[in-house]
Amino acid sequence: MPQGDYKKLADEELVFRYAQRGEQAAFATLFERYGHLVYGVCLKYLKDAEAAKDAMQQVFIKLLEDLKRFKIDSFKPWLYQVAKNHCFMQLRKTVHEVNGEIDREADMEFDDGWHHKIEQEQLLDNLELCIGELAAEQQVCIKMFYLEKMTYADIAQQTGYTMMQVKSAIQNGKRNLKLKLEAKRNVST
């Protein structure tokens, strides 16, 4: 198919052609179509042009695999959510580090509640670790439901799980997360 013809295709057709047929031109067309949107979202949240450019590239690099893994019905809103989640994860990592140690003075200059920020960072790190310890089905469903803000139906459609499996994985995953977080908290106190 000539390069120009890809521009006439719907987003979902481009996703299909890339994910199922490996057509690189389809992915390139999605990048041309939505690179500026992802950059804009990243700039809105990260407030820095260079960081936004880097984040946009990271989002599209991640898409190279994600488009093959998930069934995506509405590409543009899904991509917007992926970009937003990526920015939130980047913002989480803003604790200043100097030689591997937290730069408390720099934090204090900008934020009187630096100790609260560090506690939040530790909680988020623990949460990330605990999610990684869940069963695979629970991990996928928890991430999609809470981080990507997907509905049960969307999760079922993208994963191939039944609606009952999705509900069960989220319910059991939440319970297991709570237990794992409490155990980590008890160990650290």
Structural class: mainly alpha
Distance between the termini: 62 Å
**Largest beta-sheet characterization:** 2 strands, antiparallel
Question: What is the share of helical residues?
Answer: over 70%
CATH class label of the domain at 1-94: Mainly Alpha
Poorly predicted segments: 95-112
**Beta strand count:** 2
The CATH architecture of the domain at 1-94: Orthogonal Bundle
- Indicate the overall shape: flat
Query: DSSP strand (E) fraction?
Result: under 5%
CATH superfamily of the domain at 1-94: RNA polymerase sigma factor, region 2, helix turn helix motif
Q: Characteristics of this structure?
A:
189 residues; mainly alpha; Rna Polymerase Sigma Factor, Chain: A; 10 helices; 2 strands
Description:
The protein has 189 residues and is mainly alpha-helical. Mean pLDDT is 82; it is low at 95-112. The protein is flat. Helices cover 79% and strands 2% of the residues. The chain has a domain at 1-94: Rna Polymerase Sigma Factor, Chain: A, CATH 1.10.1740.10. It has a two-stranded antiparallel ribbon. A hairpin with a 2-residue loop joins strand 1 and strand 2.
Secondary-structure map:
Layout: H1 3-6, H2 11-21, H3 24-46, H4 49-69, H5 75-92, E1 97-98, E2 101-102, H6 104-110, H7 114-133, H8 136-147, H9 152-159, H10 163-188
Antiparallel strand pairs: 1-2
Helix pairs in contact: 2-3, 2-4, 3-4, 3-5, 7-10, 8-10, 9-10
